[in-house]
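Teaching assistant's notes for section 4

Start the section by putting this record on the projector. Ask students to predict, before seeing the second block, whether Glucokinase will look compact or extended. Collect guesses on the board.
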Amino acid sequence: MDQAESVRTPSSWVVVGLDNGGTCNNATVLDATGQFLVNDLVENPSRVLEGPESAVEALAEAFGNILELTSTPLSLVRAVGLDTPGPASAHGVISSKGATNFNQVSWHGFDIRGALETRLGLPVVYNNDGNAAALYAHHQHFGAQASEHSSVSAIVGTGLGGGVVEAGSVVRGSAGMAGELGHVQIPLHGVLEDDQPVPMCNCGFAGDVESIASLTGIRNNLLPYWLTRFPDHPLVNEPIGVAAKALRGYGEKDDALALAVFGQQAKAIGKLFTIAANFTDPSAYFLGGGVVEADPHFRQWFLNCVRENTELRDEQKAVATFALVPDRDMAGARGAAVAALAEASITAASAA
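Reveal the predicted structure now:
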């Protein structure tokens, strides 16, 4: 990919967005006028498995690389947005029990936001990755009217992440754990088959959204059941982990087993959105993650299934939108940048 074709010169001060993942860090630059300076995915190794010190240095390298790529002087950077997988506090302290990609003891209770802030010498604004993607989807969809609307996002991946945005800002909660939509327990009537076991989540809950609508839910709960209903399917002979990862490809080919599994996932998310409709009555429901990084006809089918299984009142149907999270691979870094821009703008206004 020729990055030079997608790079613009900053027209004012900027913020940098950094999306930390298990394999790579994604980076972007957003200027004060709301323009992203890079149109494509820019990745560097994240080195999280080497421990906190290496991972923070890798984030610093990603920061330096994106400034070099966009010909942005360090002096123009007002703040940095950072997102990582959760659970973590609202201030970027990894859970005392570790988190996704952060299993080593050295990560438990580690303040990754503070460590990066010290390393870069710039303010760092933290969100978990689900909240960052939710924030980007909201602002990209509503634009200048973002502060006038609310939204709920479900991000389907290894787990089920998400975020709640109210008046253009992420709802964080007192412990920073609001928007953990994967662990909302849902009514299972109409989702499971009569003889299907109640799915269990790794968090210990029975019948929460993540136990169904996630890659982990497919591997641990849905696929073992559905393979018994399709004993001649090619995936019967594959290890369950391999089969779970291969399932989306079958779904894109309208395979009956795959559509049964993904149909249950869509029903579960519909139940979640029905609960959200009664709690927050959002303007928009966004769907993101691996399940929509697929063939266009499949992801549209999945979104339609979610919509059909979300029970809204007529008044809500008239005003609610269902949409996919845009720029899927870049949504985390871009959402992190949007959060940093908001904080930097407030600071600039206060200083004026």
